[in-house]
Every structure is written in structure tokens, then in C-alpha cells.
């Protein structure tokens, strides 16, 4: 038997050159015996022993059907949960194919922890659903105990900021009825007597957290699913996916091949864990994940540990899971081991633990529960797990192949997220959309140029793994996988002090820094794998300053940009926008169906509109500009017959919008083309009272209200270059966007900056856009406007052609909502006290929590914090205007409530005078 401290000594002796992880010094320990090499999972029962070993050789556990409505590939947590939820939705003839036996991939050796609170409202709901399934539903349905243990969870805060983060989680938990308590060190000691609390600021205790059992969970899921008509076939590896091309040239799933026969099916779900990449390749689908070793060790018995909650010590990057009368100790390292050659022969397998890597956790574990120093290690559990570039799963229909869904890449959270994600995936398959807003998990959140870029996937997945336990700060940015997509102004703006943000692979301006340049440097893996860690460089330094829940030190720099825009003019480079053309004989029919607003105006018009799903949820918002037909192609318009529209959509939503539009065109068989010109065109936007005077000096066009009214566009010359000018605003000012071919961007920009100097024109970035747009009450897709929000709930009824008779996608759902009354409504709030808010704060109305903040920022012109969130009536009735107006509101931030004023109209320029040039 080795003990944790002896293990540490062993490693110290054998690896003398290993440098400690930043911030954690190894104690000088004398050489000692090496650690245990015993590998075994700590579960009483696994499915490895459930059948005899020769079963695989005998072939599939059941005969294969010739057809199936859905084939789920993989019998781990995700496959079983998806099958169960498909069956619950009434899908008959769904089949799960497992290469070996259920759980034999990663699931059998999971630690199985379930924590209910995460800094995302959607994730909190997904986790709550898993908890309901394993703690209640499955037992009710099957009579089997899943092995769920509710021993509670304890998050450790070793710094004030960490405690602030936990308090944010506590406020969000109130919205969803999740009990949690911030405990002092003394209270923590009383709850967990074996814990060292000397160095604690406090803890967050969540009594209804717990632990899942993999075999019990998957057996119950399979039993419940088969009772509802689904089939589970083990010992049946999938060897190929057949694809057909339909009459419109669209690739669709046709069948699944195995050595034992073929199953015809229109729908496949790839739940193959670390093998999902291989299954994707069978279908020509890119699956951006990497496989890594992930581990925990199981201790010998510890007197007094029974019934203790599970512990997450984020600052030490370590967790302590209760394992009967012992603990499992695991965590996230800065140098995880990549599993380079994923073997398809690996079933119920474990790797040898690399103690050099794992030792990083030992000191933190011993520090937190000192008795561990003298406790032996019974066994080690090191298995494969898949990790993705942003530490979020990969879900939804693959853009490359209709009928091929992903349910993989679970980043060591596939047990706790399994139920919620299985439910959403089932809904996605059956109804065409998940019920919740799953954009953060949707494969379409990544640009297609990145999803098979191995360096990008590897770097980003490494950083996301290494930072898994880091505080989630509102304005953090990745350091890995940067500079993948840059626009023609990149170098120029960098030289002018631009501090970039990364979205969708693009580098876009965040804000401008007066003291020198701040380039993003190549990724240093935080010093792992022999890379030299960069200690002090401008971008890293500025980013570190963002690591706060207070106003960052450069708050004033963003303020200057905002006030310049309101008082004179600001130049925004928005080149990362998605820019598409929708053209062809059926383009008008397609536009009528796709867009909630009436875009069939004369050529030259530009319309702000939403795109909806059949539930009336908002799949995107964009501007649609009707084009005059032209036989000649130019960089600013393709040649087309029939009708043509130019679509401009926020860059972070570009792939999502592209895929949504493409799927609708395919499903409705519209004869038109969608052309992506995002990389060919740049987008400059000059906004503010002085914008007209500045632009007039550079553009060969009359910019008067009569000649160039709001919401119109024209091809004009700017500094001698042909551009498409649009009179529009994302910030609530008089202003124009110039959509220019790549080579024209820099000369047009330079001419504008020269002309603007005397008018006070400044460069401004997206941090200013965020503040200015919230001040004006403009929505931001995927923050205060999402796929689970209807435009009526979001106060965007003006974007819906409900008064016309034109049918459009989502119309019926909106009409139903209108008839029944809105069950939720987006409200704006202002807070008089100068307190920063970022979203997730709880909204109180007359002493009851009625919602949470989706988006918040500081508005510099009104000099107040602004917040937007949806509220409900706790009685369950519609949220009437009377209900809204009769309430007294407060916003709870980190456990403290602040009085707030509710606004149905934007508090800034409520009559929209400024966009019309009325100052
Ligand atoms: C050490 C460790 C600790 C963890 N701790 C936690 C935790 O505390 N909480 C938590 O929520 N998560 C945890 N996880 C993560 C969690 O266990 C995984 O995310 C989850 O089990 C993954 O499930 P899955 O269904 O995606 O993959 P898997 O369980 O790997 O299932 C995929 C299945 O697909 C099958 N398959 C592959 N190829 C084919 C093919 N061609 N045909 C048919 N079948 C195929 C495989 O045999 C396998 O059974 C942990 C992971 C590890 C490694």
C-alpha cells in the first residue's frame, strides 16, 4: 500500500527536474517507496463482470433489425440517456448499437459527481434534469435503484474573488430553487471536521448535490428505454455510415453498417465518446475533440469521512469525492496527456497512472484534508475522456450531413450533463430543435474552417482543460488558438492600440489601449510540454486585469470610446460579421418564409429582422438588404436571376445562421443559392452625431435624410472605392456602415480617420458596442435574445409581420403566444448604485424571485448599470403590463440586493431620435 505522501515522495525522487505548477510549491520530501500500481474502479458492480468475456466473440446480443427510426452509436452515459429520452418522446424503433458492452468506454470508470450550480442558466437546468432522472424518474419507472447518493457538495474558496464567484452561483440558484449556503470557515469545519479551514475565505454548500453510479444509471436507462420499445444491441461495432445524396444534392444519412448486417435509417446519433472522431470520419463529418488521459486515485478507509459532502477545491484544481468510507481524489492538470492513437480495442480499459502528472493534485488534497497524508492509496483510475476547444459538448445536427447528430465531447461532465443533454438531443431529433437554448453546445457554434484544424483544436482543448477550475470571469478571453481569422485592418488597428477579442475564430476589436500595442502571441501551453511560459507581455497583462468581478482598470478607456460615440463619432471595425447573399428564382419565397419581418421592400431597403424556429424561438437576428437584379457579378453582389438579398449577421452567430438558413432552404426545397462572402468583404461603421459630416467628406453621395434615409443602402464610392453603404446603427446613433471589398478596407478606413480627426472621430471596439447597445435597449443574440425566446417576449414584435397574411416560420407559435398572453417578458432595469453587473443576477419583484439577468453592462451616458432579463409571474399567469408596472424590483448580485427601476422602453433616447439624425 502506498500513501499519498509516499506517492509524492516517490515522484519527487524519480523526477527531480519536474518544476512545480505555478503557485504551488512541492514540499522538499525525502525519497520513499513508489506509489501503488493497482488499477481498479471503486464501484461495487460494473457491467464488465455482468457477462462472460466470450460474449463479444459470439456477436450481437440481439438480431439486428433491418430498419430503425434512429440509430444511437455508443452505450455510455450519453447513448443510454439519448435512447431513453427518445423512447420517452414516443419514438418507436430506436436502436442503440454498442461496440462492446454498455458503459465499457469512459462511463464505467467515471467519478460520477453531480454539482448543480454552474455559471450558466441553461447548464443549471440541464443538471437539474439529470438529477431528476437518476434520483427519481428511473427508479419510479423501473423499480431499480440507480445508485444515486445525495451527500451534498462543497465548493472551497481560497480567495475573495472565488467566494464572489460562488455568491454569483448562489444568486442564480435561487432562480431555479437550488438550495445553497455560503459558509464561514467555522461553519465549514463544523460540517466537515476533517477539513483544514485555516486558509479559507468561505465555502458554498449545496446539500442536494450528489454522486451517480455508472452501471446502475445505464442499466436503469436501458431497462426503461427497452420497456418503451427501444432496442439495445451490444457487441456490435458500427463499421460504416451510408450516405445518400437527394434530388437537391443534399447529403443525408441512409444506413449504418456493421459486420453483422446493415440497418437502414434516416437518423444517426454519434455518442461514441473518444471514438466519436472515428465514427464521424465514417460519415465525412468533422468532430472537433481530442482524447486525453483523465484520472483519480482511490484512498484506503478514512475514519470519520463517512457521509461527508463531495468537495471541489477549485483553487487547488482538485476534487475529493466521497467513496463510501474513503475518498477519490482527482483534478485538472496543466500538462494532461493526450491519447494520440485512440484504439478501438479499448473496452473496460484503464491506463497506468502517470504520477508525474498526477502529483500536482496531491499537495492540494493533503492541504485540504490533512489526514490524507497518512492515508494509503488503494487503486488508481486513469481512463480516456474527450475534450473540446471550449470545454463544452458537441451536440446537434452536423452541418455536413443531414440526419447525423452529435452527442459527444463531454469534457469530464458527461455523467452529470447526460440526462439534460440526452433530453435535448432527443427533442432536437424529434422536433427539429431542442427545447432549451443549446447554442453553447451546438456544433454550429464553431466556424467550419476550424472544426478540422488540428492545431486549433489541440491548443484550445488544452487551455480549456487546464482552466477548467479557473474562476469564470465575464471578460476573459482564450490565449490558445488565436489569430486564426484576421481581417484587412488587423495590423493597422493593432498599431493603433487595439486589444483584440476572439469570436468564432475571428480577432475582433475589444477596446483601444492608449499605451502601445498588445499583440496576441503564439500559445505557450502555460509552460507545459517543455514550452516556455510567457510571464509578462502586454496582452497577457491586460487580460489578467480583466480577471475581476469589479470594474476593470480600463473601464475609463471604454467610457471614452462610448462618450466619443455619443458626443462626436466612433469608428467600429465589424468586419467579422457574416455576410451572405441569398439569390435565385425562389429567393423571395425563401426570404418571406425565413424572416419574421417583411423584407419584400423595394431594392435599396434594409430591414432588421429575426429568424425563428417552429416554436417561435429566435434562431438569429440580422439585417436583410434587398438588391436590385444585376447580370454582372461584382465583389459587392453576385449576378443573379429572380430576387436577391444581402444578409449581415453578427460574426459569433454566423455559422449558426448559415446552417439554419441552409437547412430551411433544403427542407422547403427552395430554388436559390446562399453564398458566403464573409471573408471577401470588410465592414466599417461610423456612428455618432458627427458621422454624416465625416462620411460626407469621403463619400461621393448625398447623405442627407432625403437622399439617404435610415434603413436604406446604396452602392457608392468612398475614397474612390466602391462600397455598399447602409444607414443603420447598432448603437443608437446617426451612422452608416460601409461594406467594402477586402482590398478597399484599409484605404477607406485611413481616409475616414483622416477626415474624422477634426470631428473627434475615435476608434472603438466591441466592449463599447456592448455598452452602447444595451444603453439603447438593442438586443444581442445569444444573450438577451436566444433560441428559447420569442421576439414577442423580447419586445421585438415590430420585427414580426403578424399584421400581414404572409406565412413565415414560427408564425403559428407566435399567434398562439399572442392569443394566450406572454408567460415571460424581457424587461430592462437600471440600478442607481455604481455596481458592476454581468448577467446571472437574480431579479426580485415584491419580495419574490421572478427571473434572472441575461445581460448587463454599464451605460456611460446615463451613468448607470443596465440589466436585461426575462420575468415571470410566480402565479403562472401571463405577464401583463400591469404586472410589470405594479412591481418593486431589486437585482441580487452576489447575495446583495440593489433597488432597480424597470423599463419597458430604453431609458436612453426612448423616441429613437438620434438614429434619425435628430440631436
Ligand atoms: C477519471 C474520470 C472522472 C470523471 N468524473 C466525472 C464526474 O465526476 N462527473 C461527470 O459528470 N463526468 C465525469 N467524467 C466524465 C464522464 O464519465 C464522461 O463524460 C462520460 O462517461 C462520457 O460518456 P459517453 O457516453 O460520451 O462516452 P463513453 O462512455 O465512452 O461511451 C461511448 C461508447 O461508444 C462505444 N463505441 C465507440 N465506437 C463505437 C462503434 N464504432 N460502434 C459502436 N459503439 C461504439 C464505446 O464502446 C463506448 O461504450 C469523468 C471521466 C473520467 C475519465
What's the overall geometry? Answer: globular
What value does the Rg take, in angstroms?
Answer: 28 Å
Strand order of the largest sheet: 1-18-14-17-16-15-5-7-6
Helix percent reads 10-25%
- Biggest sheet, open or closed, and with what strands and sense? 9 strands, mixed
Count every helix, treating DSSP H or I runs of 4 or more residues as helices.
Answer: 21
Distance between the amino and carboxyl termini: 79 Å
Ranges with pLDDT <50 over ≥5 residues? 11-34
Proportion of residues in extended strands: 15-25%
Overall SS class = alpha+beta
Number of strands: 39
Please tell me the overall pLDDT: 93
Give the names of the bound compounds.
Answer: flavin-adenine dinucleotide
Describe the protein:
This protein is of the alpha+beta class and 919 residues long. It is 25% helix and 25% strand. A nine-stranded mixed sheet has the order 1-18-14-17-16-15-5-7-6. Strands 9-3-2-13-20-19 form a six-stranded mixed sheet, with helices on both faces. It is globular. The structure holds flavin-adenine dinucleotide (FAD). Flavin-adenine dinucleotide is lined by residues 73-79, 97-100, 104-107, 110-113, 237-238, 271-273, 275, 279, 294-296, 330, 347, 381, 383, 385, 408, 410, 412-416. Residues 489-803 form the GCVT N-terminal domain.
